[in-house]
Amino acid sequence: MLIYEAEGFLEVEVDSINRLCRSRDPVTFGDIGGSGFEVHAILCDFQDNSQSRCYVAFHDKALRTSLIFSVKSPGEASAWQHGQDALAGLEYQLDEQNLRLSPAMLEVVMKDVPGLLSPAEARKQRHEKAQFLAELQAAVETDPASAAGRKAALKLGAEKRLDERVGELRQLMIDTLSPAEKRDADGEAMMEQVRDLTARLEAAEGLVDQERKQREISELITAAAEKRIQELEEILVDVETRSAGEIKQKRRIVVLQRRIKELEGQLSLVSDDVVKERDKQEQFITDVRSAQEQIAALDDSLQKNQKMLADSFDQLAQERALRNQLETSFKAAEGRISELEEELRGGGEQNTRTDEADKVAEALPAQLEKLESEMRDLREDRLRECTLRKRLEKSAAEDVRRIRDLEAALEKAGEEASAATAEVVHDGEQKASLQNELEALERRLREEQAGKEDLEHDLEQAHKIIDSLEQMVKEAEGAPDPDGTEKQEENRKLLELTEEVALIKEQIAQERARQEELAEEVAAAEKKLADREVTTGKKPLNKSVATFAEPETVEAEESSKPAKARKPLPHELRPAPNKSAFFHPDWDLEGLPCKSEKHIVRAWETVFNVQISLEGYPSQYCMAFLIVLKQDNLKKMFMLFRLKQSKHTLVLVPAVPPANEAQLKKAIDEGLKFLKLSGFEMEEMPEEYISSSLGSYFLKE
C-alpha cells in the first residue's frame, strides 16, 4: 500500500540511492471540465542510515510541488516490487534509471528527475519561498493601495490558489491510493508508525536535553575563560606600555656605550696626529715668514727697478732737451740757408754766406752722430730694464707659486681640523679667516702682476715712440723738411711720451702702496697663525682626523712641482645615474623637501653608523634614514645618508616614482633591503622623536 507522508520533494542524497524509476509520461487525475492534474511519478529505493526505505513521489509541474508516499508491502513481497505494481495499476510506464555514471553526469541526470532534490537544495528552495512570501506580506501590510502593494496581493492570491489546488490533488491521490476498505488497516499502520515515531522523538528529546545541559556548562566555562583572557590581555598591554619606553631607552644606552668605546679607541689613535699637526703648523708659520721675507726682497727689487726707471726718465728728459736743441739748430740752419740764398741772389757777399752754410752743414752730422750715441745708450738701458723686469716677473711667479702651496697646505690643515670635535670649532673659524686672508693676498698679488704687465706694456709703447723718434731723426738727416710738418709731429709724439711717463710713475706709486698693504696683511696672518698654534696646543681632539700631507720641508725641496689638486666630489661632478639601479641620487637635494614633521608619514633610522662607500664618495662613516613624505596628496620616499667626512647629505630616490600604495610599499621594502645589505640596522622612529632627529635636514622652502 502507499501511505501519504508529506508535501514537497523527496529529499535524498545521490550516493545513497539504490534503485530509481521514473514515468515516461504523466497521468491525468480528476479530469473534470478540463481541470485535471498532469502528474509524473518516480519510485526510489534508498538507504536511510542502516535501513532501506522505498518511496513514491507524484510531481505536478504546474503546481511546482510533489506528494510523497511511503511504500508498505502487505506480504512477503519487496517494497520495490509492490511500488512498481501500484504504479503500473495507475497506468504508469516506468523506466529504470542507470546509476552507474560518473559523479558529474549522475548529478546532471538527477536534476532532470521530477520530485527529487538533495536535502541542501530542498532547504534552499524552502528558505527562498518563505522569504518571498514574507516580502509580499510586508509589501501588502505597508501600503496595500500602492502599485507594489496591489501586485504583492495578487501574487499572494496566486500562491493561495496554488495551495488550494495542492490540497485538492493531495485529497484526490489519498482517495485514489487508499480505498475505504483499506483505510482501517492504513489507520492501524499509521498509529503503529506514530507510536514508533513518538518513541524515537522522546529518545531524541532526552539526548537534546543532555546536550543542552552540556552546552550550557561549556558556555559558562568559555565565558569565564574569555573574561580571564581579557583581564590578562589588559594587564599585558599595561605592562608593555610601561616597559616599551624603558626597553627602547636601554637599547639606546647600549648603542651609545658602544659608540663611546669606539670614540675612545679613536681618541687613543689621534694623539700622534695632533703632534704631526703641531709640527705642520710650525712649519707653516716658518713658510709664512719666509714668504714675508721674499715679499720684502721683492719690494726692494721693485724700488731698485723704480730707481732705474727714474734714471731712464732723466735720460729721456736729457734726450728731449737735446732734441729741442737739435730742432733749434735745424731752424737756425734753415734761416741761415735762406739768408745765404738771398745774399747769393743779391751779389757780392754770396761766397762768404756759402762758406757759412757749408760750416753749418758740416756741424750738423756731428750733432746727429751725438744723438745716435745717446739713442744707443737708451737702447742699452731698455735692455737692462727688460732683464730686470723679467727677473721681477720670475720672482713674482715664485711668490705666487709659494703662496699657492701655502694655501693648499692651509686648506689641507682646514680639512683635517674640520673633522675634530666641537672643541676645535673656534680653530676652524680661525683657519677659515686665515684662508680668506691668504686668498685676498693672492688676489692682490694677481692684481700686482696685472699692474706689472700694464707697466710693461706702457714701457714697450714708450720704446716704440723712442724708436719712431730715432727713425724720424734719421729721415730728417737725410732729407730735411722745409715746411716743418715732421717737427710738429715729433713735438706731438714727445708730448704723448711725457703723458705716458707720468702715467707710469702713477702706476709705480700704486704698486708701492699695494706692496705695503701686502706686507701688513702677511704680518697680520703670521700673528693669527701664532695665536692659532697656541690655541690648538691647549685643546684636545676627540675624533679621528684624516692623514696629514707631507711636511713643508718636502714641499720646499720639491718646490718646482705643482701642488696636487683636490679630487672633486660626486655632487660637484653630478655623474649620470646607473640605469639598472632601483634608486638614483638626486643631486639637487641636500635634505628633505619639507618644512616640518607634519609632512612625514613614516620614518626609519639606523641604530649605529656604518663605514661605507656610496655613489663614488670615499669610504667613510655615515648615518642613514628612510622617510616617507606626503606632498599634495602624493606619498614620496627618500633615503638620506649623512656623510661624515665629506660633510654632505646624499639623497637617493626611486628611479621610478611610486604612483600608488602598492608601488610605495615595494619601494619601501627595496629600500630597507638595500640598507640591510649595506650593513645598516634600521628601526622605525616614534612620532615624538621625528622632529628632534630629522629637524636639521628640513629644507626651508
Give short descriptive properties of this protein.
alpha+beta; 16 strands; 7-stranded antiparallel β-sheet; 14% strand; 701 residues; 13 helices; elongated; single chain
Task: Tell me briefly what this model is.
By secondary structure, the chain is an alpha+beta fold. Helices cover 65% and strands 14% of the residues.
Oligomer: single chain
Structural class: alpha+beta
Strand runs, count: 16
How many angstroms does the end-to-end distance come to? 98 Å
Question: How much of the sequence is in beta strands?
Answer: 5-15%
Topology order in helix (H) and strand (E) letters: EEEEEEEHEHEHHHHHHHHHEEEEEEHEH
The Cα radius of gyration reads 61 Å
Tally of helical runs: 13
Helix content: 55-70%
**How would you describe the shape?**
elongated
Largest sheet: 7 strands, antiparallel
On the 0 to 100 scale, the average pLDDT is 76
Poorly predicted runs of 5 or more residues = 421-425, 537-564
What does this protein look like?
The chain is α+β, with helices and mostly antiparallel strands and 701 residues long. The chain is 65% helix and 14% strand. The chain is built from 13 helices and 16 strands. Strands 1, 3, 4, 5, 6, 7 and 8 form a seven-stranded antiparallel beta sheet that branches. A hairpin with a 7-residue loop joins strand 12 and strand 13. Helix 6 (271-346) runs antiparallel to helix 9. It is elongated. The relative contact order is 0.06.
